[in-house]
Structure formats: structure tokens, C-alpha cells
């Protein structure tokens, strides 16, 4: 149980470099592993999720050395992975699981995947079913992990995705590059495009059409290792963007944050709500980055629908927090995917925010929040529900309250942001969290 800070009177100040992007760190390991030659990753995210990916590829026979945030991968090529002697532990990581399924489905050996309790409740048929249409032989357990993959030769597919999910899209791309013919994937809505951009940087030929949802994947590319600096994770910067917006008298600079347009939904939403964020030192080579300068602001309520969700999917608990301080009624819909994240994030946000007396109502696919109603703390023991992003959102909420709150399951931050509480202490006047 971690003690959270109570009301911050002096605001958040200074500069912060958040850890490397989780999505890009996972992909850096995976794509480096199946390339020829060495890939070096700088500013790799050394959190539990990405370490699950790193260990899995070591088990698949890829030499990988890590020295702090620098990772060297000696790529074995698209057909050079080796069968693991033991089942592969996916930990808590949905990204590791779904992407690796697409990759291992086309290898010439068998694999078994398992994960922790939370991951073992998350849906896997969304990946195994379309992969089966490509000839994959994957046996999931009632639609969940554990999964057994009997590696096969795969054929091409023309497929319309049933969910707006970058993880599913990426799994299919990783299968499609091993197929016999070009494949076409059509997304429901555009989702994060790191797989397409990064695989092309390694030498693949993946084209996204002008409609932004049709993706053509050419098979059997020659992938060659690269040197890659992972940008700061927008999804980690988001906690500080929201904290500095909501805590009066704040002005904070977040250095070198990834601002790929498929990830910046929070910035657009903040601007519409009246938030103050200025972009500086933008660098558009490869994955774009910028420094973000954020200051406190009074907020207006907002309505958000399905089309906007993929670019802000991981930040929606924070959007709910912004709405809980905006001057009126906000509505977030089309976000049913939140129910199948590390926990049911709709239920978890409603349950925990209600403890703080926030006027929030659960919808099947989102929330309605009346930010004009004052908060009144009803329970001081909060719970992360074992979910990193819920835990960090609650820690930010506590900065706005006079009461001393406690957080059960605070260690869940290790999944994506092990230094979170130290970084929060460094930009506030909090000495340290205990
Ligand atoms: C991710 C995609 C998103 C996101 C997850 C990481 C990725 O999941 O929520 O944290 O790296 O591809 P979905 O694509 O399933 O929505």
C-alpha cells in the first residue's frame, strides 16, 4: 500500500524526460530479432512488459545483450528463430502476446505461450481466428492463453479487421511478411502505425493507402538491422500533461516525447478542452518527437466518440480525470475496448473515481462525467486493480485532494513506468513516496 501525496500547492515545475515508448521498444526487439545483422536500441523501455519481449526472443535463440537502456540484438533473420525448450512467458503483456503469435504462426516449429492472471483473461481469438484464415494452426484455451502454436507455411490474406486494434493489425502484418503472396488488410479505424513505419525502416515494403485504413503487405522482405533511438512514451508523458494542466501554478517541459499522429489524441483533446500545451523542437525524422511545454488551465467539458478513440486508447482514464475537473458534463463513448485491457478500465475508473465522490456514470462503452460537481472523498483506500495506468491515474488524482489517500497495488507501475513515483516527486515538491 503506497501513501499518495495530498494537495499540491506549488504546481509541477521543471523538465522531465519520460522513459522510452513501450510500443516502439517491443517492436524494436521483435523486428531486430528477425532482421539480418545487428540492431541497437537506445532509450529502450526497461519496464516489465518490454522485458517479457526481450526474454521471449532470447528463449527463441536470439542473442540479445542489454546494458541499462541500450540493447544490442544480433538478428537471426526471418527464418532463423529456434524452438524454445520451455513455454514462453508473456507476463502481463498483450502486445508481446499478440505480435509474437503472428510471427510464430509462420515459423517451422511449435511454441507455447502463457501469461499472468490478467493477461490470461484477455481475448486472443481476435488474433488466432484471422491467422487461421492464413493457414495458421493456433490452439487457444477458451479464447485465451495458454496458447499452442504449431508453426506452418502461411498464405496471403485479404482481410477486414473486426476490431480497431494495432495489436491485431501488427500480428497479421507479421504473419503476412512470411506468406507466399502480398496481403491486404483493411482497418476499422486507423490505429497506431509503428509496425508499418518501423518494419519499412528495417527494409520491408508495407504501403498504407491514402484512405489511411488499407494496408498492403509485401511478403518475404530482406530485413536488415538498424540503430534506433526510442522516443519518450506519449502514454507516460500523458500523466504529467494531465497533472500540470490540473494542478494550479504549474509549468512543465516534457522532453523528447513521441508525437506520432496516431498517438496524439490526448493533445487534440486537451486543446479542445482549453488546455495549454506548446510543441517545441519538433524532429520529424523517423518516429517524430517534440518537447511539450504544458501549463495549468481551466477546462471545458468534451464529447468524444469512436473515431477518436484509437489515438487516445491508453490515455482514456486520464481523459476521464480531465473531464472530472472540467466545468460541465463530458461524455466518452465508443470505447468498449477499455473493457478488455489489463483490467476492465471502464469499471475500474468508475469504481475508483466514485470513492473520490466524482460524479461519474458508467456506459457500456464509456463514461458520462459531471466535472462541475465538487469532489468529496468517501474512501481513502484506492486500488490500481493491478493495472499500471489505473494506478498512475489515481496518483495524479490525489494531487488535487486535501485528504491523504493510499494506493493498493502501486507496484503495477513497473509494467510500463518503474520510475513513475520518483519522476513525480522530482517535478513536485514531494520529497519521496513511501
Ligand atoms: C498497443 C496497442 C494498443 C494499446 C497497447 C499497445 C501496441 O492495443 O492499448 O497498450 O503496441 O500495438 P490495441 O491495439 O489492442 O487497442
Automatic annotation (TrEMBL):
It comes from the Bacteria. It catalyses: 3-phosphoshikimate + phosphoenolpyruvate = 5-O-(1-carboxyvinyl)-3-phosphoshikimate + phosphate. GO terms for molecular function: 3-phosphoshikimate 1-carboxyvinyltransferase activity. Its EC number is 2.5.1.19. Pfam families: EPSP_synthase. Pathway: Metabolic intermediate biosynthesis; chorismate biosynthesis; chorismate from D-erythrose 4-phosphate and phosphoenolpyruvate: step 6/7. One of its GO terms (biological process) is aromatic amino acid family biosynthetic process. It is found in: Cytoplasm. Phosphoenolpyruvate binds at residues 22, 94, 122, 167, 345, 389. PROSITE patterns: EPSP_SYNTHASE_1, EPSP_SYNTHASE_2. Residues 11-424 form the Enolpyruvate transferase domain. The active site is at 314 (proton acceptor). Catalyzes the transfer of the enolpyruvyl moiety of phosphoenolpyruvate (PEP) to the 5-hydroxyl of shikimate-3-phosphate (S3P) to produce enolpyruvyl shikimate-3-phosphate and inorganic phosphate. Belongs to the EPSP synthase family. This is 3-phosphoshikimate 1-carboxyvinyltransferase. It comes from Lentilactobacillus hilgardii (strain ATCC 8290 / DSM 20176 / CCUG 30140 / JCM 1155 / KCTC 3500 / NBRC 15886 / NCIMB 8040 / NRRL B-1843 / 9).
Amino acid at each position: 500500500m503506497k501513501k499518495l501525496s495530498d494537495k499540491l500547492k506549488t504546481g509541477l515545475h521543471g523538465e522531465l524526460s519520460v522513459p522510452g515508448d513501450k510500443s516502439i521498444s517491443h517492436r524494436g526487439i521483435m523486428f531486430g530479432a528477425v532482421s539480418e545483422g545487428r540492431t541497437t536500441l537506445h532509450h529502450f523501455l526497461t519496464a516489465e512488459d518490454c522485458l517479457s519481449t526481450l526474454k521471449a526472443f532470447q528463449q527463441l535463440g536470439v542473442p540479445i545483450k542489454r546494458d541499462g537502456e541500450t540493447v544490442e540484438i544480433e538478428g537471426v533473420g526471418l527464418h532463423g528463430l529456434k524452438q524454445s525448450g520451455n513455454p514462453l512467458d508473456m507476463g502481463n503483456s498483450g502486445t508481446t502476446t499478440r505480435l509474437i503469435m503472428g510471427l510464430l504462426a509462420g515459423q517451422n516449429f511449435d511454441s507455447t505461450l502463457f501469461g499472468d492472471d490478467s493477461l490470461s483473461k484477455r481475448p486472443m481469438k481476435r488474433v488466432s481466428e484471422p491467422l487461421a484464415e492464413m493457414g495458421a494452426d493456433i490452439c487457444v484455451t477458451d479464447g485465451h492463453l495458454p496458447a499452442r502454436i504449431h508453426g506452418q507455411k502461411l498464405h496471403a490474406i485479404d482481410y477486414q479487421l473486426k476490431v480497431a486494434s494495432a495489436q491485431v493489425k501488427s500480428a497479421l502484418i507479421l504473419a503476412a511478411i512470411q506468406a507466399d503472396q502480398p496481403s491486404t488488410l483493411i482497418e476499422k479505424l486507423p490505429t497506431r502505425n509503428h509496425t508499418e513505419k518501423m518494419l519499412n525502416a528495417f527494409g520491408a515494403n508495407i504501403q498504407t493507402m491514402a484512405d489511411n485504413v488499407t494496408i498492403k503487405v509485401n511478403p518475404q522482405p530482406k530485413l536488415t538491422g538498424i540503430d534506433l533511438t526510442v522516443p519518450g512514451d506519449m502514454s507516460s508523458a500523458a500523466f504529467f500533461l494531465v497533472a500540470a494542466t490540473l494542478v494550479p501554478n504549474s509549468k512543465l517541459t516534457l522532453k523528447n516525447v513521441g508525437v506520432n499522429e496516431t498517438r496524439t489524441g490526448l493533445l487534440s483533446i486537451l486543446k479542445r478542452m482549453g488546455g495549454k500545451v506548446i510543441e517545441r523542437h519538433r524532429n520529424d525524422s523517423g518516429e517524430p518527437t517534440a518537447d511539450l511545454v504544458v501549463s495549468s488551465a481551466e477546462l471545458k467539458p468534451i464529447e468524444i466518440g469512436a473515431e477518436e478513440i484509437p489515438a487516445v486508447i491508453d490515455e482514456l482514464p486520464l481523459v476521464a480525470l480531465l473531464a472530472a475537473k472540467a466545468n460541465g458534463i463530458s461524455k466518452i463513448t465508443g470505447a468498449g475496448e477499455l473493457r478488455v485491457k489489463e483490467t476492465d478500465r471502464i469499471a475500474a475508473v468508475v469504481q475508483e473515481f466514485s470513492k473520490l465522490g466524482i460524479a461519474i456514470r458508467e456506459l457500456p462503452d464509456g463514461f458520462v462525467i459531471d466535472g462541475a460537481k465538487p469532489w468529496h472523498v468517501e474512501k481513502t483506500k484506492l486500488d490500481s486493480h493491478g493495472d499500471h495506468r489505473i494506478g498512475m491515474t489515481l496518483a495524479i488524482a490525489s494531487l488535487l485532494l486535501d485528504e491523504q489517500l493510499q494506493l493498493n497495488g502501486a507496484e503495477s507501475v513497473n509494467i510500463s513506468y518503474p520510475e513513475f513515483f520518483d519522476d513525480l516527486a522530482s517535478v513536485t515538491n514531494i520529497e519521496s513516496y513511501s
